[in-house]
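Below sits the subject:
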Amino acid sequence: MSIAENSPGKVLIVGAGPGASDLITVKGLRALRQADIVFYDALVNPQLLSETDEAAEKVFVGKRCGRHALDQREINRWMVFEAQAGKTVVRLKGGDPLVFGRGGEEALACEEAGIEFELIPGVSSALGAASYAGIPLTHRGIASSVAFITAREGRENESGQNKLASLAKAADTLVIFMGGSRLRSIVKSLIGAGLSASTPVAVISEATLHKQQTIVAKLSTIAEQVARARLTTPMLIIVGEVAYLSTALNWFERQRRAVPAIEPDAPAELILLQWPE
């Protein structure tokens, strides 16, 4: 790794995957290994930073539960500044940078500044969490459509809740990002939009990591069950009939602790799969 004098820099916006360090792409790892400076998020597995050159600078710019290390505009300006200095800049983001990751905003900042950039995809947290909880987001005879939505927008106005309500029956499977702290209001919105209170819901905490926990319950009781289990963020919410398939297909949590298989259509009020102490 070296910085040539007066050479143009470059920004690589990299998806780190959903949490587990081995779910980053080969191209993502290659980018890390050539970085002069890495700006990384809170949800990035810290083990990935060991893949960088010893001389590479590592800067935490994470956002978590409303607490921001830096404003997004500051992150954009800093990335551009370092690239203008001739450095190879890696912006390392949890999941995929273009799925609720603001990667598009950062790419636009580079474009406006005349900085070369690449967008390197990652495994979205939605896909990673679903796979590691044993939930096919589409399944023949059960679900042929899926919608992704963030719950965070509704904190400032009602647009997020309205969008959620409009999607309630428009897609067979709903995947809700950043909704763990707003689960009760999400449930209220979905039921108010006409979704049955018995609709299966899965809430996945710490997806793909050693502490992953999955709760499957009915829409009417999921908030109570999640509160009782004291799940920690980040959490992903999956709403739809496919959620019950986790009771039979949750291979990741079952391989750490023997859990008897439950038929997907069994009347399960709560299935909590968690790691032994």
About this structure: Residues 261-277 have pLDDT under 50 and may be disordered. The radius of gyration is 20 Å. DSSP finds nine helices and 13 strands in the chain.
